C-alpha cells in the first residue's frame, strides 16, 4: 500500500491539464452519449473507478453514471437508483449502498472492488461506506464498450431516455487495482493524478454523439 500511495503522490498533479475538461449532457434523450476508449482492455480482477459529476435530476428516477457493456452482458454499470442509493452491477445482481442525498453541485464518487475477497466499497466525497462482499471470484471481461450518458440494453444500443444522465461530468478515472482510501480522499479534494492506467481523464479519447458536448 505504501508503494501504491508513493506512486500516486509522485505522479503529481495534472490538474492544470485536466482543468476545464468536461462533458455536458443538456437534455434527457435516448440518443446522446459519449464513448470512452480505455488505455487497456477491461479484463479486471480488481479496479478503482472514480467519477466527478453534477446533476439536478431529482425524484424517483434511475440515472446511469457509467456503463461498460459487452455483447451479452451489462459487464460493469454504476447507477443512482430511484430511491437515491448508489449501486454497482457486475454481470448480474447489484451491490447497493445507502448514501447521503447527492446535491446539485459537483460530487465525487469512487468505487473499489477486488475479486479475491469480493470486498466492495463506495466513497462519496472522500467518505467511505461500509464495505460489502460482492461477486467474489468474478472477473470483468474484455471486448466491450464504455459509454457515459446512457445504459445500453444491447451492444451500444436500445437506450431509454428516462434512464439517461443529464448534467455535467468533470472527470472519469479508472485503475486496475484498488487504491488506498487516503488516495481516494485526496482525489475527492480536487487533486488529479497522472497514473490512472485504464481511464485517465487527462488523455482519454472521447467520442460524443447526439447533443452531448465536450468542453476543454
From TrEMBL:
Keyword field: Calcium, Disulfide bond, Metal-binding, Signal
Annotated cofactor note: Binds 2 calcium ions per subunit.
Assembly and oligomerization: Homopentamer. Pentaxin (or pentraxin) have a discoid arrangement of 5 non-covalently bound subunits.
Similarity comment: family membership: Belongs to the pentraxin family.
GO cellular component term, pick one: extracellular region
Span of the signal peptide: 1-19
Subcellular location, record wording: Secreted
Domain of life: Eukaryota
Keyword check for Metal-binding: yes
GO MF term (any one): metal ion binding
Name of the protein this chain belongs to: Pentraxin family member
UniProt-listed InterPro entries: ConA-like_dom_sf, Pentaxin_CS, Pentraxin_domain, PTX_dom
Start and end residues of each Pentraxin (PTX) domain: 19-216
Amino acid at each position: 500500500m505504501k508503494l501504491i500511495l508513493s506512486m500516486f503522490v509522485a505522479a503529481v498533479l495534472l490538474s492544470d491539464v485536466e482543468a476545464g475538461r468536461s462533458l455536458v449532457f443538456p437534455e434527457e434523450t435516448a440518443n446522446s452519449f459519449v464513448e470512452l476508449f480505455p488505455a487497456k482492455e477491461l479484463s479486471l480482477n480488481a479496479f478503482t473507478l472514480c467519477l466527478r459529476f453534477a446533476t439536478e435530476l431529482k425524484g424517483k428516477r434511475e440515472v446511469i453514471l457509467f456503463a461498460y457493456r459487452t455483447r451479452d452482458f451489462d459487464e460493469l454499470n454504476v447507477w443512482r437508483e430511484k430511491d437515491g442509493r448508489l449501486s454497482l452491477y457486475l454481470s448480474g445482481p447489484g451491490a447497493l449502498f445507502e448514501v447521503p442525498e447527492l446535491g446539485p453541485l459537483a460530487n465525487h464518487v469512487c468505487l473499489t472492488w477486488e475479486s479475491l475477497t469480493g470486498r466492495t466499497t463506495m466513497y462519496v466525497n472522500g467518505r467511505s461506506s461500509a464495505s460489502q462482499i460482492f461477486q467474489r471470484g468474478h472477473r470483468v471481461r474484455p471486448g466491450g464498450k464504455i459509454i457515459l450518458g446512457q445504459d445500453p440494453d444491447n451492444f451500444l444500443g436500445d437506450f431509454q431516455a428516462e434512464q439517461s444522465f443529464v448534467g455535467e461530468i468533470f472527470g472519469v478515472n479508472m485503475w486496475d487495482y484498488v487504491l488506498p482510501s487516503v488516495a481516494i480522499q485526496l482525489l475527492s479534494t480536487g487533486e488529479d493524478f497522472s497514473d490512472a492506467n485504464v481511464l485517465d481523464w487527462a488523455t482519454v479519447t472521447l467520442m460524443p454523439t447526439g447533443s452531448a458536448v465536450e468542453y476543454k
